[in-house]
Amino acid sequence: MKKLSVLASLLFVLAACNTNEKKAVATISPKSGSNVSGTVTFIEKDGIVTMKASLSGLSEGNHAIHIHAIGDCSADDGTSAGGHWNPTNENHGKWKQEPFHVGDIGNLVVGADGKGTLERETVLWSVGSKDITKNVVGHAIIIHEGPDDFSSQPSGAAGPRIGCGEIVRK
Fold first, then answer.
1. By the 8 A CB rule, do 51 and 38 touch?
2. In angstroms, how far apart are the furthest CA atoms of the chain?
3. CB burial of residue 125 (10 Å; 0-12, 13-18, 19+)
4. Of 106, 105, 107, 115, the residue nearest 59 (C-alpha)
5. In the chain, where do the E strands start and end?
6. The CATH number of 21-169 is which of 3.30.300.70, 2.60.40.200, 2.60.40.10, 2.40.240.20?
7. Residue 49 belongs to what H/E stretch?
8. Are 92 and 152 in contact (CB under 8 A)?
9. What's the pLDDT tens digit per position in 122-155?
10. What pLDDT score does 162 carry?
11. 3-state secondary structure of 11
């Protein structure tokens, strides 16, 4: 019986090691006097990255969410995160509608309860790769007070930064 238990444990460990899943998380902290909190998770499997944002403490309506260039949320207003992450030097725009920054995620729809979720799936990002045009790790997620208009340059006229989290590999 003990041999069976050891074998089962070994198989579990081997199965866990064989997964090619990579994960990074941004824990969102409030900025500019807001009450925003939550997480944005990136999971890469088989070359596809799935991003899931789950946030609370927001006003009802649309709030822009972007990947910003610098993984630094130390400023009270989030400006330490720099501008949008745009390693391919494209104009600002709407997610997956040319042209757009790879950091242009879109708008998070928030209900009356102050909570919102958003999911994206793409091959344009990676978790921890050496490709600087794809690797999300080391950048920051910014939540804005207002919606992205998808056209104003360079950032979508989304208003103050009310939430920030550095994207960290887990």
1. no
2. 67
3. buried
4. 115
5. 22-30, 37-45, 48-56, 61-68, 104-110, 116-122, 140-144, 161-169
6. 2.60.40.200
7. strand 48-56
8. yes
9. 999 999 999 999 999 999 999 999 999 998 888 7
10. 98
11. helix
pTM for the structure as a whole: 0.88
**What type of residue is 84?**
H
What span, in angstroms and rounded, lies between the C-alpha atoms of 162 and 151? 21
C-beta atoms surrounding 151 within 10 Å: 11
- Distance CA(86)–CA(91), nearest Å, equals 9
Provide φ and ψ at 4, rounded to 5°.
-65, -40
- Which amino acid makes up residue 48? I
Domain ranges for the chain = 21-169
Higher pLDDT, 153 or 63: 63
